[in-house]
């Protein structure tokens, strides 16, 4: 993979900070048995983390489903992303969350793994350093 712009790295770090904040919110809501809100925050943790990973590849999707598709096409399948996308739709637009708090705790652990994976993608891109112009030809 090629190097990435400093702006993309900064944007990725901002997305990762949002992802970590959403995870903290999800845990608080889960502890309070506010499951619809917890699911929504879990989804946004996954969304922001995957946006960070895509950003360091120079990629961005305009829609939520497009983000999931682009992430899958770039990094391979990560079933938890599609799972929380569907759960969030149920929570926000459907009949609400039907998962138990225990199942949501397991889903939370999977989202944490996804965020961690995306943090690694960003760290590796940052370690490669910013894009540099091609060196001048030897004369």
Write up this protein.
With 139 residues, the protein is an all-alpha fold. The chain contains five helices and no strands. Helix 2 packs across helix 3, helix 2 packs across helix 4 and helix 2 runs parallel beside helix 5. It is elongated. It starts with 5 loop residues before the first helix and ends in an 11-residue tail after the last helix.
Give the H and E element order. Answer: HHHHH
Mean pLDDT: 90
How many distinct helices?
5
Largest sheet properties: none
Q: Flag low-confidence runs.
A: none
Relative strand content: under 5%
Count of beta strands: 0
Name a few traits of the molecule:
139 residues, mainly alpha, 73% helix, elongated
Secondary structure elements and pairings:
Layout: H1 6-31, H2 35-55, H3 64-75, H4 79-93, H5 101-128
Helix pairs in contact: 1-2, 1-5, 2-3, 2-4, 2-5
Structure described in brief:
This protein has 139 residues and is mainly α. Helices cover 73% and strands 0% of the residues.
């Amino acid at each position: 993979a090629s190097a990435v712009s400093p702006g993309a790295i900064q944007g990725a770090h901002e997305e990762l900070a949002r992802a970590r904040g959403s995870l903290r919110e999800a845990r608080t809501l889960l502890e309070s048995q506010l499951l619809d809100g917890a699911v929504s925050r879990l989804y946004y943790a996954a969304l922001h983390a995957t946006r960070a990973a895509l950003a360091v590849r120079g990629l961005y999707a305009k829609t939520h489903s497009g983000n999931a598709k682009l992430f899958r096409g770039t990094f391979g399948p990560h079933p938890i992303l599609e799972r929380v996308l569907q759960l969030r739709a149920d929570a926000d637009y459907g009949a609400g969350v039907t998962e138990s708090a225990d199942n949501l705790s397991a889903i939370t652990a999977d989202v944490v793994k996804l965020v961690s994976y995306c943090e690694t993608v960003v760290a590796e891109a940052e370690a490669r350093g910013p894009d540099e112009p091609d060196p001048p030809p030897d004369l």
